[in-house]
Structures are given as structure tokens and as C-alpha cells.
Design brief:
This protein is an alpha+beta fold and 643 residues long. It has 23 helices and 18 strands. It is globular, with a radius of gyration of 30 Å.
């Protein structure tokens, strides 16, 4: 038998068996007499879903044949057919709905009910590293109508009981292991980190927490799972859901911010800094165990924009500089209002903007104007023209936006002001970016900043200023690729959605950042260790007069952070002294460092106050850190330091 192209694509006996199986399942897959007929029919058919189905059948049949050629067993016909259906849904095409019968519709957010009189059970399973296993099953349509009364829960209980039938699971395990009851040692549940890896991770997490605490944040622990009782909003498709033997559906923690916002709204909190470092989970492809990642979140509630965003960026940079040289940090800024205006300027229709953003994310790891980013535009252009059917004019404008409006902050902002429609919202957005850049320059980040107007927000709830922070693999400049370390932005929108307006109070502003801790682990070495010594002191840097003396407050608080002290300043440009005292009382801060315009310009002195001891002392600006360190070392018992 000659295994040529026609045999593989048309005449293979196993191929015919798979087609028959697919037809039994309700898929009207075509068959052909020869290769020419196959090519002509598939090119001319209007049912592109079935055409792609046929191509997937040929591919997976050929791959199964290769397994046999290399000494392994061929896959069963039903397994190949099921894999074709699974991959079809992955590639997001849909055959004619009438061909689907009782099978799952391919579109990721759609679900097809079974015919009348049928039951449809969708099942998924997960296994954690801790050996906790779960299987989730969902019976819909006919059975759900029956289960509306408690008297009819018998059917559901029988299904759950069958899923957790240990005898069936043991028989399945024996079959998979070739009849042996011995556990396979390379099973993911046996995956262990080395002692060194664990130590490096612990050090990196503790250093990250130290920085969070230095900025005045307090930890709020997020529960690793929750029971789905039908009252929670439906989460995104890649959340991990487990079914307990009691029939309850659990959802593993997918992200750390939404639960915090729920707490914030429930307690009507208006001023708070919060952090959390914990694992989050994502669904894996196929039958693999869920993917899990360490994530670090830092949030600021209350304050003014863009001061809140500036401190969020500063937190990430402070963490990054614990592990790498400052020149390796790449900060990219954007504003969702500016992004929308760029879409309009380029002529991208509203319904295509999400798809265009997903394509443009392929160049996101490369800095603006880098050689790699420019070279990737050839591929991006083809995809925009062929897949999304954008016009040449629109694609040219998008590429022009990348070349002209991305890069150096001052240059990009000047060009944006001249090109975009100057309505009040766009002017306000550009001014917010400009002010954020000015604040970051106070903290010596000017060389790390760039504007990327094609950068979409990493989460749908970020509205307004947003940022992404990358780590370059080395200090060489320019660099073609970088690793995304953190994302963040303003999420007032999320708080507004959940806020209880019955209390007649407006919700506070909210800014947050999320760190991919695995990226931090890569840069941690045995020489980098947490300080293990935290001064028992929390300082609020205040001002009196002088228009708020924001520059001076920001410079001084940065020096205190550099000295590993817990320090804060009220995130307003010109807070009153009363507002600053109220902030200190609300956040249990005992030490105030008070800057006055006269003190700085005439005497060079600033005041240090201890609110609980009711002591005050004027000291030179350059002696502040030494004075606070000495005071903290004696736990303020030595009252002579105030003389």
C-alpha cells in the first residue's frame, strides 16, 4: 500500500472510521473520492467549519499514525474524533449549528441545549499539587428543570455519586498504568522545588512584602477558594472550578483584586493601603492540573490622580531595584481615553478594537522604536489586512501611531496634542499622563519612562491611567525584548460598579498594581536577602503652607523608603494640616515630620513630632533619618533625644 498524499488525506481506512464516528455524533463531515475533488469541494464550500473539521481529522489521524511508526499505540477512533472537536473550539470556528445535535457548541461563551428528552452533562476535572482532586459536572436543560424542586435532587445526587465512585477511579488508574498499582513518580503531584529554589522564593516574597509595608500597606488575606451558590457574578472562562463529593461547586482564587473590592465596598472604606502575596489559579489546556502562579497585589484607596498612580509605580520600581539594576526597568504609560482617541484617529471601528488590541499585544514585549518591534510590523500588517479585513489606510495609520506617538514622553505628548481631537476629555487625559511623568521624575525615573499609546489596559476594569513595567534581560540599551513584571492602573470603574449608593457617599478613587512574582523569582540570587530588621516606626511626611510643598514631601518620603523606614504622605497636592492630622489618626501613625516653607528656605530646619508622647524637636533636614533611627532603636524610651 502506497502511503502518498491521497492515501493520507482521502483513502486511509482509519480516516474513514473517524468520519463515520463524527457523523454518528451529529457532525456532517464530508468524504471524497480523490484529492482533486477534496481540494475543489473544500475551497468552494460555504461551511468553513466543516472544512476545518476535515483538515483537523486528517492531521490528527496522521499524528496517530506517527505514534504507531515510533513504537507506540495508535489513538482510538473516538479519542481522535473528540480531539478534533476540542481543537475546533480552540480555533474559534463554528460549523452549522444544526450539525451539532447534543454536542457542545464551539463558541467559548455559547452552550447548546440537548434535544427534548436528553440529559447533557459537561464535566471537567482538576488535580492540585497538594493531591486535592476535584471533578466538576454540570447537567443542564432537562435535568435542571427537574431539579428546581428539592424532591427531585435524586438525579443530581446519583450523578455526583457516580463521578466520585472510587472503584471506577481505581479501575481507570489501573488501565492508564497498564495494570500496575504503582504510582508514577513523574506525576505532577510529585513535583517538588529544590531547597535552594524554595529559599530564593521565600526571600523574594519577603522582600516584596517589606517594600509593601514600607509604603504603609497592610495585608488582607484572600481566601484561596469560594463556594459558587449562584449569587456571585460569572467569572471568566479560565477560572478553576471544583466539585466536592457533597455536590458543592468551588472556584479557586483567580485574581486578588475583586475580593478586596468586595471587602472595601462592604465596609465602606475610603482610605486604605493594602497588599497581598498569594497563589492564583488558571485552567490548564486539556487534562493537565491547573496552572498556579504567585501574584503580589498593592492597592491605594483614596487620594488624587495621578499621585496614587505614581506611588503604585514607585512601589514596583522599589521592588525591582532590590533584584536588578535600575537601568533594566522599563515603565510604559498610557491612558484608556488616549487609546480610544487613537483608535478613532486611525479609523478602527468600535467592534474591531478588542481584536486589534489583541493583535497589537504581540509587539508589547518590545520597547517602542526597537528593531524587533519594527520588524514585527510586517506580520501584524498581514494579520490586520487578511484576518480583520482592515483597509490599508487604517493599518498605515496604526503603524504611524506606533512610530510617532510612542516613545519619549515629552516628544510623544507634544505630537499627541497636535494630532488628536482636542476635546476636554482628551486634554484631561494627556494632562494626567504629563503630570504622572512629572511626579515620576521627582523620584528619578525619567530614563525609564516611555509612552505606548497602543498598549491596552491589562484588565477590563482599568479605566484612566494604566501602566506596564518590564524588566530587560540585561543593561544593554537598546534592547529588543523585555519581561513583563507588573501591570496596574486606576480601577474606579470597578469600585463604582459595586458601590452601595444608599449611604449617599461617593466611592473613593482606587489604584492598584499586580506583580508576576515568578518573574521576580528569576532575578533573585542567594546574595539577595530580606533585611529581617524593620524599624518600629511609621512616619507621615507633612507640610504646612507653601502650596503643599509636594516636591519636598515626595523627595523626603523617598529618602525614608530608601532607609527601609515605613513612611507615607497624604496623596493630595495641597492637603491642609487638619487633613494630614486626620490621616495620621486614621492610620495609627505616631511620628510626623513637618516641612514648612520658612523652615526650608530660612533656617534649613524641619520639625519632628511624636503625637503620643506630645514631644517636638526641630532638626536639620539632613539629620532626619539619623534622628528617627536613633529614636526607634530605643523604642522612644530615651526622652533626652527631644531636648
Amino acid at each position: 500500500m502506497r502511503e502518498d498524499t491521497e492515501h493520507i488525506a482521502i483513502k486511509c481506512e482509519k480516516l474513514s472510521e473517524i468520519i463515520v464516528k463524527m457523523r454518528q455524533w451529529g457532525f456532517n463531515v464530508p468524504s471524497f473520492q480523490n484529492l482533486d475533488e477534496c481540494i475543489e469541494e473544500l475551497n468552494n464550500t460555504t461551511d468553513k467549519g466543516n472544512a476545518k473539521n476535515y483538515a483537523l481529522i486528517v492531521y490528527y489521524n496522521w499524528r496517530s499514525r506517527n505514534l504507531s511508526k515510533h513504537g507506540n499505540s495508535e489513538l482510538p477512533t473516538a479519542v481522535i474524533a473528540a480531539e478534533v472537536i476540542s481543537q475546533a473550539s480552540f480555533y474559534l470556528f463554528s460549523p452549522t449549528e444544526k450539525n451539532w445535535s447534543t454536542n457542545q457548541h464551539l463558541l467559548p461563551k455559547a452552550w447548546c441545549p440537548p434535544p427534548e428528552g436528553w440529559l447533557k452533562l459537561n464535566v471537567d476535572a482538576a488535580l492540585l499539587d497538594s493531591n486535592l482532586a476535584g471533578v466538576a459536572g454540570l447537567i443542564r436543560d432537562y435535568v435542571l428543570r427537574v431539579l428546581q424542586s428539592s424532591d427531585d435532587s435524586y438525579v443530581y445526587d446519583r450523578v455526583v455519586s457516580s463521578i466520585f465512585d472510587m472503584k471506577r477511579l481505581v479501575v481507570k488508574a489501573l488501565h492508564l498504568n497498564g495494570g500496575s498499582s504503582k504510582q508514577i513518580r513523574d506525576d505532577p503531584s510529585f513535583l517538588q522545588y529544590t531547597e535552594l529554589d524554595t529559599e530564593l522564593q521565600d526571600n523574594a516574597i519577603e522582600i516584596t512584602k517589606e517594600v509593601f509595608r514600607q509604603h504603609g500597606a497592610k495585608r488582607l488575606e484572600i481566601s484561596p477558594m469560594r463556594i459558587l451558590d449562584g449569587y456571585q457574578p460569572v467569572n471568566r472562562w479560565n477560572t478553576v472550578k471544583l466539585l466536592t463529593s457533597g455536590g458543592d461547586m468551588l472556584e479557586l482564587c483567580h485574581e486578588l483584586r475583586t475580593p478586596f473590592v468586595d471587602w472595601l465596598v462592604a465596609n465602606q472604606v475610603f482610605s486604605f493601603k493594602r497588599y497581598e502575596v498569594n497563589r492564583v489559579y488558571r485552567r490548564a489546556v486539556g487534562h493537565s492540573t491547573p496552572n498556579r502562579f504567585y501574584q503580589g497585589d498593592f492597592d491605594i484607596i483614596g487620594g488624587s490622580s495621578p499621585l496614587m498612580e505614581a506611588e503604585a509605580v514607585k512601589v514596583v520600581v522599589d521592588i525591582a531595584t532590590k533584584f536588578c539594576h535600575p537601568s533594566m526597568i522599563d515603565i510604559r504609560l498610557n491612558h484608556t481615553q488616549v487609546l480610544e482617541e487613537v483608535w478613532s484617529w486611525a479609523g478602527v471601528s468600535t467592534e474591531l478594537r478588542q481584536n486589534v488590541a489583541e493583535l497589537l499585544s504581540l509587539i508589547g514585549s518590545s520597547p517602542p522604536h526597537s528593531t524587533k518591534r519594527k520588524s514585527n510590523w510586517g506580520f501584524i500588517r498581514r494579520q490586520l489586512l487578511q484576518d480583520l479585513h482592515l483597509s490599508e489606510v487604517v493599518v498605515d495609520r496604526l503603524q504611524t501611531a506606533d512610530l510617532r506617538f510612542c516613545g519619549s514622553a515629552d516628544q510623544a505628548l507634544a505630537r499627541l496634542r497636535g494630532a488628536l481631537f482636542p476635546d476636554k476629555f482628551t486634554r484631561k487625559a494627556l494632562e494626567e499622563i504629563s503630570t504622572l511623568v512629572r511626579y515620576l521624575r521627582i523620584w528619578n525615573m525619567e530614563k525609564n519612562i516611555s509612552i505606548d499609546v497602543l498598549m491596552p489596559p491589562s484588565e477590563e476594569y482599568y479605566r484612566g491611567l494604566c501602566f506596564q513595567i518590564f524588566l530587560k534581560d540585561h543593561m544593554q540599551v537598546p534592547v529588543s525584548e523585555a519581561t513583563l513584571m507588573a501591570v496596574g492602573g486606576r480601577y474606579d470603574y470597578l469600585v463604582h460598579q459595586k458601590w452601595n449608593y444608599e449611604n449617599r457617599s461617593n466611592p473613593p478613587g482606587a489604584v492598584g498594581t499586580s506583580l508576576a512574582m515568578e518573574k521576580v523569582f528569576r532575578h533573585c540570587s542567594v546574595d539577595i536577602k530580606p533585611s529581617r530588621i524593620e524599624l518600629n516606626i511609621n512616619v507621615l511626611v507633612c507640610s504646612k503652607g507653601g502650596g503643599g510643598l509636594l516636591l519636598e514631601r515626595m523627595e523626603l518620603v523617598a529618602e525614608l523608603w530608601q532607609a527601609s523606614m515605613k513612611a507615607e504622605f497624604v496623596l493630595l497636592e495641597d492637603p491642609s494640616l487638619t487633613e494630614q492630622y486626620e490621616y495620621a489618626a486614621e492610620h495609627d501613625i505616631k511620628f510626623l515630620v513637618l516641612i514648612t516653607e520658612a523652615g526650608l528656605t530660612q533656617t534649613g530646619l524641619i520639625k519632628v513630632r511624636h503625637l503620643e508622647l506630645k514631644k517636638e524637636k526641630e532638626i536639620e533636614r539632613g539629620e532626619v533619618i539619623k534622628f528617627l533611627t536613633d529614636a526607634a532603636s530605643t523604642q522612644f524610651r530615651n526622652l533626652s533625644i527631644w531636648n
